[in-house]
TrEMBL record:
The gene is potA. It comes from the Bacteria. Its EC number is 7.6.2.11. GO terms for cellular component: ATP-binding cassette (ABC) transporter complex. Part of the ABC transporter complex PotABCD involved in spermidine/putrescine import. Responsible for energy coupling to the transport system. This is Spermidine/putrescine import ATP-binding protein PotA. Residues 7-241 form the ABC transporter domain. One of its GO terms (molecular function) is ATP hydrolysis activity. InterPro entries: AAA+_ATPase, ABC_SmlMolc_Importer, ABC_transporter-like_ATP-bd, ABC_transporter-like_CS, Mo/tungstate-bd_C_term_dom, P-loop_NTPase, PotA-like, PotA_ATP-bd. NCBIfam families: potA (TIGR01187). The complex is composed of two ATP-binding proteins (PotA), two transmembrane proteins (PotB and PotC) and a solute-binding protein (PotD). Keywords: ATP-binding, Cell membrane, Membrane, Nucleotide-binding, Translocase, Transport. The keyword Cell membrane applies. It comes from Winogradskya consettensis. It catalyses: ATP + H2O + polyamine-[polyamine-binding protein]Side 1 = ADP + phosphate + polyamineSide 2 + [polyamine-binding protein]Side 1.
Amino acid sequence: MSDTAAIELVGVHKDFLSHGDTVQAVKPTDLAVGQGEFFSLLGPSGCGKTTTMRMIAGFEEPSGGTVFLDGNDVTGVAPHKRDVNMVFQSYALFPHLTAYQNVAFGLERKKVAKDEIRRRVGEMLEIVSLTGMEKRSPREMSGGQQQRVALARALVNGPRALLLDEPLGALDLKLRQQMQIELKRIQREVGITFVYVTHDQGEALTMSDRIAVMEGGRIDQLGTPREIYEKPATRFVAGFIGTSNLLDGSVDSVTGGVALLVFGPEEKVLVPVPASVTDGAKLEISVRPEKIDLSRDAPAAADCSVLTGTVREVVYHGTSTNYTVRTSAGADLVVFDQNAYSAEDLAGPGDRVYLTWSPQHSYPIGVRP
């Protein structure tokens, strides 16, 4: 076990019976979340992320394995005896109580002194930017303000960890984006471990120190937002995290740790590879749309990947223009061109274009040293 883990799962799995058959909602999982870390469980509906969180909270009993909180085995311990709190999408505020009373509720149940309650509730309302709104009822507050009250109520008891299950799902897009920044700020201020469940990859990338991408009841990849975005470990991760272009090919040669894949007389892809990749190896390569340059002119540089193709679609998105190009390699590649200097399109449907990018922006999926 890790000495520094706030939360640790060792061989934890969850089985359900469905029509007489055993279904593994969560396959055997080992996972350690560090003290004070903002950790996200990310994946589509049904991937097992919420079940994993509920096993940490104690609302679901694992079918096997061990759950540790701060090094203590809490497998089988009731939820109210675990030093964690949970925030849900529905907020679950008491409608007949004020914001102050909602936040103070848990402290009053614990018979904390009134002066101490006033101090701690005041501090927490200040942290979530609700000072001056103590007397408002939930119905007098916006969705974002209600979410802040729910956060303050969960944090005021000083739990070892806070578990958040899709907490921003009920908010509109602009407010959700604002709350993402606020949540990260609050987490840094209070210094408590956050475990955040979401299906929104933008949320996870914005807030997390590390992300576990889940699919089919297992963790496909665990890493920092940058690692997961830039170096997806599987085809699923490459497609689920943002937009990714995928290319298949055979290695023509490897020189200085860079593989050459040839697709035509002037068309090639260069990709850094470990020593385990040799001539003739089959590779699946990921390259992000914003890494690709699109031009009607042939590139002058020889040390870059080059494909040719025909523009099929041009979509204007305000901050960027997105191009879909059918390449000679037989794949449709998406290119994002940021509208920083010109609002003019680089090319139109039917135009023949060159696509170029640096070797370091190609990443071989599923290749291990």
